[in-house]
Structure formats: C-alpha cells, structure tokens
Amino acid sequence: MAEAVVSVALETLGNLLIQEATFLKGVKGQVKGLQTELRGIKSLLKDADQKQHNSETIQNWIKEIRCLAYQAEDVLEEYVVKAGSGKGDLGFVNILKRFVCFANEMSTLHKIGSEIETIKSEISILTGKMDKFGIEAVVTRDPEDKRRRFIRRTYPHEDLQHFVGMDHDIENLVSLLVSDEEISRHGVIGVWGMGGSGKTCVAKKVYKHMDVKIFFDAFAWVCITQDCEIQSVMQDIFRQLLPAETKKDTILDELVEQIYNVQMEKKCLIVLDDIWKLGDWECLRKCFPNVGISHSKVLVTTRIGKVAEIGYPVKLKGFTEDEAWKLLRMKAFAKIHFQVPWDESEYEKLGRKMIRKCERLPLAVAVIGGILSSKNSLEEWKLASEDVNSYIGRGEGTGAQGEVEKVLALSYNELPYHLKPCFLSLGFLREDEPIFVESIYDLWMAQGLIQSKHVGRNETMRDVAKCYFYELQFRSMVLLHDLSRISLHDSMLELCLSKAKEEEFLKVVDKHNISDKAYRLVAHVDGEDNYLDVLKAIENSTIPLRSVQIIHKQLSNLILPKEIFNLPHFKSLRTLIIFRCYLRGKCFHGIENLIHLRLLGLALCEWENFSLESVDKLSFLQTIILTGTALTSMQLPPVDTFCKMPQLRHLYLPYFPDGVRIEGKTLRLMNLSQLECLYSFQSNFYDLKDLFHLEKLRTLRWCAVYDDESLVQITDYICGSNLRWIDISIGHCDLNRQQESDALRKLLKIPNVTLELGIRSCKLLKLPRLETVDFSNMCPGLVHLSLEDIETDIAEDVMQALDKFPNLKKLELLSVRFGGEEMICGPGSFPRLEKLDFYIVEGKFELRIDEAAMPNLSSMDIVSCIGINFMLPQRLRLFAQIDHCSSCVFN
C-alpha cells in the first residue's frame, strides 16, 4: 500500500511540472530530484509491505514514507496556488502590486526549495536504513509461503459431509459437461465467484457426480493457486490421467504432447481449481485440444471473471435462504442434545437474520454455524446475532480463527498495487445503502488514485476509473446493482475496514476509536451524540486529513461548525462530502483555505439560501456534487453560479422538483470548457444552448426534458455530440406526433453510446414504427428502458418490439396499460436482460416467456398486475417476486 501512496505523489509531482511549469520554474531541478528519491524508495516498498507484518521497525518506516509523500504533494500545490494568485491582469495597479510583492515571492521560492530539500533528505535517509535492513527491490519469498500454499491446496476426496444446496448450480454444470450437444461449444467451463462462495465445493460435487463418472473415462484434479508452477501442474495432470505411464523428469514439451494425446484418445475431465492469472492459463492451454475436436472437458474455478471467460463463464448463483438455513442448522445443532421440549422457530428467526446479514455467503454461513454449535441458549443466539461480523472475523469457537477474513484477504493481497487504495477507499459504504458508481469514480480521481500512465489515446481519467472498477468487479470484490449502484458484501466490507485501519488509510468514526490515526475520516451520523463524537474526532486529528465524509442517516438540522475550515489539519483535504445536512447562511465561509480540495459533495442536503460563495476560489476543484439537493424555483441561485469555475470536470446539478420555471431565469453553464460529465440537467431550468459549447462533455446523466420543443432540441444536440453515455427522461410529450416520434427514433439509432431511456407521463400508442427499421442499425447501447405513467393504451406487443435490442439489461413497465391480447418472449430473446419489472401493469393479455428466453435474467418483480396471465419458466421461481397478481403459472 505504501507503494501506491508514493505512486500518487509521483503522479502529482509529474502533473504539476507539466501543467504549472511557469510557477515551478525556480524549483524545477529540486522537484525532479525529489521525484528521483521517491522512485528509488518506491522500488523497495513491495518488499517492505511483504515484511512489515513481522517488524515494527518496517511498519514505522512505511508510516514515515507515507507522511513524506503526502507532504511533497501539499508543499508543491500550496506554492502553485500562492504563485498563481498573484498573476492577475497586466494593468498598472496590478503591475505595481506584483513589484511590491516580488520580495515576498522570492522568499516563498526559497522556502519551498528548503522544504523540498528537507523531504528529499529524509527520504534518502530512510532508503539507506531500509537497504541496510535487507529490504530488496525484488520481493523475496517468505519461508512461510510454502506452508500456506500447501494448506490451501484442494483435493477432490476431501469430506463434504456438511455440504448442502446449490443444486441448480451443480445440475447446470453437470449438463454442460455431459450433454453431447455441448461438445462443440463448451470445451472449457469457467466457474467464478467471490472467495468463500462455494466454487471448490460445487466443483467437487460435479467431479463426483454419477452422470459425470459414467460419461468420462479419465479424471484429473489440480489446485493452481497464485503461484502456478507450470511443469509441476502438468506432471500432476498426466499422473492422474495415466498413472501407469508416469515417469519422473519428463521434459515439458513431452508432457504437453502426452497430455494432449490422452485427451484426444479418451474422454477426460480435468479440473483446474483456483486459477488467478490469465497468464497461467496461457501457459497451460497448450495441453488442451481446441474446442470441437475432442470430447474432453476442462472445468476451471476462479475468483476473477476475466479468467472465467477463457471458456464458457458460469457465475455461481449461491445459496437460497432456505439452503443457507439448512447448512447453518446442520452445523449449529450437530452437538446439541436438548433435554427439554424446545421451540426451534425462535432459533430459526435469529439464524435467518444472521444469514441475511452475511448475505448467504456459504463460508460465512458455515463459520456462523460452527460458532453457534457451542451456544445452546436463545439468549446466546441473540447476542451472536447482534454482532455477526465480529464473530465471523474471529471465527470464535470454530477452530479456524478468522477463516473468512483469511480467505477474502487472498483476493486483497493479489490486487495490483494501484487497485488497493481504490478498494480501501470504499470503506465508507454501508450494507443497506448502495452508492452510485459514478460517485466512486469521482472519489478516486479526487484522491489521485487514477494513474495517468493508464490513460490511452482518446481516453479520460474517468474511462480509466471505470476500468479500475470493472477489474474489482471481475475479481468479485465489489457488487453492482441495477447497472449503476455499488456495494460491498458485508464480509468484504469488514476486510476493507480492517486493512484500511492497518494502513492508517481510512477509519469510520465512532466513540471507541476517536484517537485512532487515519488520513481519511468517515462518519455515519445517527443523532446529536454521535455527531459530537464525529466533531471531536475531527478536531483531535493529529495528522493532515485527506478526506472527510459526514453522512447523516436522515436529514439533519445539526450545523457544521463555521471554524471547521480553519482547522490546521483540514488544509490538506482533497475531498469533503456531506450528505443529508441542513445548510444555513454563509456556511462555507473559510472554505477557500482548503486549497487542495478536488471534490465537494453536498448531496441530499437542504439549503436555507443556496450559495456557493468562496467555492469558486478553489483552483484545484474538479467535482461538485449537489445530487438530490432539492431547490424550489424561489431559491434559484445567480445565473452565473457555475460559470465562475471553468476548471470543473464533473458537475452534479441541484434538482428543482416543483418544475416551476421563472420566466427569464435559467442557470447558465457557459465557460465550462473542461466539463466531461454533467448530471441532473433539467430543460426548464437550464439553457439548452449551453450544451453545444461543452465540447469535452462525454457523459450526460439524469437529463430530463419536459416539453416537445426541448425534446427536439436536445435530440439534435445529442446526435451531433461526442457523448458516450446518455441517461435521458422524456416527460409530458406527445410521442404520437411525427416530429416527436422522429426525435425518439433518432435517439434509438444513435451508434457508439450507452443509452438509458425513460418515457414518463407521455402519450404513446406504440414505439416509433420499429417494424420498419433495420434492427442492425438500432441503438446497440440501449441498456435500460423504463415506460411509466403512459397516458394512452399501448396497442402493440412491446416485448417483441424490444427483444431486438441486443444489450438491453433492464426493462421497467410501471403504471402502463396494454391493449393487445398477448406478449411473447421467444427463444433467444432478450439475451442480456438481467432485470425485468412489472408494476401496476393493466390489460387483458397473456405473457409467455420461453424457457430459452432471457438467459441472464436474475431479478423479476411482478406487483399489482390485474387481468394479466403470466406463463413463466420454472427457473424464474428462484428469484421472481410476485405480489397482487391475477395469475402466474410456472411451467
């Protein structure tokens, strides 16, 4: 982790040398010297990170390095701001001011040079100490690694007496392996999911399944892990496939040929358990025949989605709650012999509560069951249910202390260094409150966690942030909901907070850890007492804070102290986020002191008088988040509020729910030449013409148009823009008229964009003549469509009209009436659809979904749909939520 902090500092220094060359001209040589020292110590930090757990001395050195890296950033940025503030207009008065201040400027230059030299000297001393201590630029092998790797090895014969459930996953995999129809399509099957999700157990069940035993002639099971020794793996495979012919010291080329040949002669099943790296597969794949020329199969298990995609990827669906309860009950009651009559129902309620708390993760459920096996009374179960995460982390009573954290920690340890701080920054998340993933990108960029060396041609830092997120998602470390919201599995959140505390990276404030050190503070405020603890923790901080997030659980009248912006350890802030707070008067007086601030988040707040006074003085500010901040038309701020901040790159606008426009008062977005992302644009409060001047705009989200003229205008803008992501809501328009229908058609045909489209409170008889359109030219990026409160009956089979969109992932029908007699989802329709919702849908028709339709559907809600007969395949029973529906039959 220290290496990541130094990388951020190097990134900042490099950017400043390029972007602020004029101001840094006098200290350029010293800055470059500082870069050299940082690069030198960075090369030692991977080894230091590996060894710090066994040495308090190394731990202290890493803390010093982290502090020095942060100091280097702050010193240079502060100088740039001071130097830049004096460069005003070249009028006579300003020239006189510059002349008078020249001596002070030279003094400042001398001071900055001295501070840089001090930091360089301290880094050099630390480098020498580490070198003498035996810290090496190349990570040396820990002698404990071999023992740990052996412990983690898996074998197919291991006992599965407590394994229950996941029958759907097992049957699905067995059918893929033994069906003759699948031979030419799925030679390699990749099973993936987060650590502890049961991948290895499921693979063992499949490996021992009777149908599999009958179908295949030879079998091999090999555990790969992070340190794959290619020749050893190949020898192990060959030994299991042909035990009678195994020889010692077979050279690698011979092994490859022999393993290949035996798979051509026999039906072989080879399980490669726990693969971590695509590179390992690239080395091993030479042993395996190409798809379609052999009856042999390879089953791979991995935590990483990209690795699973070497073949046919199968993500485990995991336990149902009933299956999880069955396992917990089996483990918990294994040793208990009740001597008196007892009621299991109360235990079951508590057990299911704990299961939901750990989100049915099989390993966590097993650990909880082991803990409860030594707790006989209902009171003991109640205590355990109140602190599930702590019990899981300790593994109390199971004989495997911290087993869940150990398993999940492997995923963290294997992260590339640039992703570790990104993961640790997610410690502010709460299980019950997913956050928009877009906000995470902003947070990472504001804290300097996105490396410019990863930015490709025609890419932005935000594009790289998305890649970082998808990498974490593919590694099963984060969860994405409804295409746009992020959360962490509860056990993964515990790991995140544990690692963040170790690194002094981040802490969640409570009354028990006020004195703990961390560069980033997160506070979840539940009331006044809790808020006082938060303010105390902020005031008592002894290190310069990089980030503060104050998240009120409910809208709060608690006031942010005005003097908070003058605290000395606040001056290094990069991000300041306040959720659900009532903001009064000149609440940002003094915020200009936060000269390093990149992100100001004021989401879901209420204002007495909306004002961003002094915020425009922050030179490095890139992101303002006012999401969910509801203003009335009477609170409309000065029209040029945002025009004074030309350096902004991401702007989340406030929302005007009353929809009442004051004639002649529209907020302007002129001068925002660097703006890349714009959110909550409302056509009745902002000037549509300003969009045409935002040449760098790539993302337009939560955009709302409320009239026919605005729809035509914004469609013309979108079609001629360079946007990559569009999220637009069309309201109160007559889409049956030719001009408006043509505008909608244009939206649906836009190439090379991701499109989310909502149609609300509009007149719409049918989607715009889709049957006459070449579907190959229809918008391939339409991922989300919502039809809501449509004022007229829709006459067509909307399902047949929409199943042509190849990438549609979410479809919502809310308060809609259909006039047709049937809707049919045939085989192969909606190939990417993940979520389908029917809310208050009316009509007299039958909806039939074929067994082979919607193969990726994982969520379906049917609520208050009267007069409709739903004919659904049996597999949807696992997750379909049905309430107040006339008729629903699972075939």
What does this structure look like?
It is a single chain. The chain has 891 residues and is α/β, with parallel strands linked by helices. The strands form three sheets. It has a 19-stranded parallel beta sheet that branches. Strands 2-3-4-1-5 form a five-stranded parallel beta sheet, with helices on both faces. Helix 1 (2-19) packs antiparallel against helix 2 (28-51), helix 3 runs antiparallel to helix 4 (92-133) and helix 14 (344-357) runs parallel beside helix 16. The protein is globular.
Task: Give me the number of helical elements.
Answer: 26
**Content of β-strand:** 15-25%
Let me know the number of strands. Answer: 27
What are the segments in which pLDDT stays under 50 over at least 5 consecutive residues?
A: 86-103, 138-148, 395-401
Q: Strand pairing plus helix content: what structural class?
A: alpha/beta
Mean pLDDT: 79
- The shape is globular
How many strands, what sense, and barrel or not for the largest sheet? 19 strands, parallel
Span between N and C termini?
53 Å
Helix content percent band: 25-40%
Q: Mind telling me the C-alpha Rg? A: 30 Å
